[in-house]
Write a structure and sequence with these properties.
By secondary structure, the protein is α/β, with parallel strands linked by helices. It contains eleven helices and nine strands. Bound molecules: N-carbamoyl-L-aspartate.
Length: 307
């Protein structure tokens, strides 16, 4: 039985296959509409989510399966003090597969050790967010044709932004990527991610503070929200919140074929005027998220691809 706890749990070959499947689903979703008949997905969300939870649910419903679950710790037995280990043992009796989001780093890993169904990490604290990474990779491959030789700017909260951590770790398996890490000093990427880039050996990276300076060379700009819920003080959050705002004036500095991605939700870091720019691809990215989660559910449940 397979789980997905980190984006590296899939080899690059398996990842290619999964992205091929997602691409085929995107081209003809109806072909897949009965693949998971009678299968159930449990969504165990101890932290708020719109896109991730609903895109998992939409994915399972699109496959003909059904869904059950909870969307906050308060509405689960966690509020009574139940452990993740006990919850997953019980959920294993009710569902065939589960997606778990938890504020504590490593909670989905703990769940996987006590589970008899596949566990998907749908975001654990400031650590990892592998299914957002699958979404990002499908979007990049579909819109840019591949991963090698790209210059990607990651901007905003690189310290707490788990989507950034997972995306960088995944991209390190490809060749000659330049990472332009744009953040205030206080929100720079964690040391373990910087070390991973250095140890990979075949990539370049620079760290800078001004988005304007980075814009002209980027093929992809990956914007992120300042992660309010992971700050210790409101004052510190407010100071960081307005640090980067992507607007039309900054877009003028970028290549004509650069794409802007964002895992969403956006707060104020991308001005709404940018939505009209054809390089703004973050809503397309959210749509890709459903197809890639359909492919993931099929892969982990070992469901046959219909002819
Ligand atoms: C991201 C997350 O939860 O980490 N959202 C998402 O899943 N699409 C990004 C964020 O919350 O900023």
């Amino acid at each position: 039985m397979r789980h997905l706890l980190s984006p590296l749990d899939l080899s690059t070959d398996e990842l290619d296959k999964l992205l091929d499947l997602a691409t085929d689903i995107a081209a003809d979703p109806d072909k897949y509409s009965e693949c998971c008949n009678k299968k159930k997905l449990a969504t165990l969300f101890y932290e708020p989510s719109t896109r991730t939870r609903l895109s998992f649910e939409a994915a399972m419903l699109n496959l003909g399966g059904s869904v059950l679950g909870f969307s906050s710790a308060d509405s689960s037995s966690a509020a009574k003090g139940e452990s993740v280990a006990d919850t997953i043992r019980v959920i294993s009796c009710y569902a065939d597969i589960c997606a778990m989001r938890h504020p504590k780093e490593g909670a989905p890993l703990v769940a996987s050790l006590h589970s008899s169904i596949p566990v998907i990490n749908a975001g654990d604290g400031g650590h990892q967010h592998p299914t957002q990474t699958l979404t990002d990779l499908l979007t990049i491959r579909s819109l840019k044709g591949g991963f090698d030789n790209l210059t990607i700017g990651l901007c905003g909260d690189l310290k707490f932004g788990r989507t950034v951590h997972s995306l960088i770790e995944s991209l390190l398996r490809y060749n000659n990527i330049k990472f332009v890490l744009i953040s205030p000093k206080e929100l720079r990427i964690p040391d373990y991610i910087r070390e991973s880039i250095i140890n990979a050996g075949n990539h370049e990276f620079v760290e800078m503070e001004r988005l304007e300076d980075a814009m002209p060379e980027l093929d992809i700009l990956y914007m992120t929200r300042v992660q309010k819920e992971r700050f210790f003080s409101e004052e510190e959050y407010l100071r960081m919140k307005g640090y980067y705002i992507l607007d039309n004036a900054k877009m003028e500095l970028a290549k004509k074929d650069m794409i802007v991605l964002h895992p969403l939700p956006r707060v104020n870091e991308i001005s709404v005027e940018v939505d009209e720019d054809e390089r703004a691809c973050y809503f397309k990215q959210a749509q890709f998220g459903v197809y890639v989660r359909m492919a993931l559910i099929m892969t982990l449940l070992e469901v046959d691809v219909p002819c």
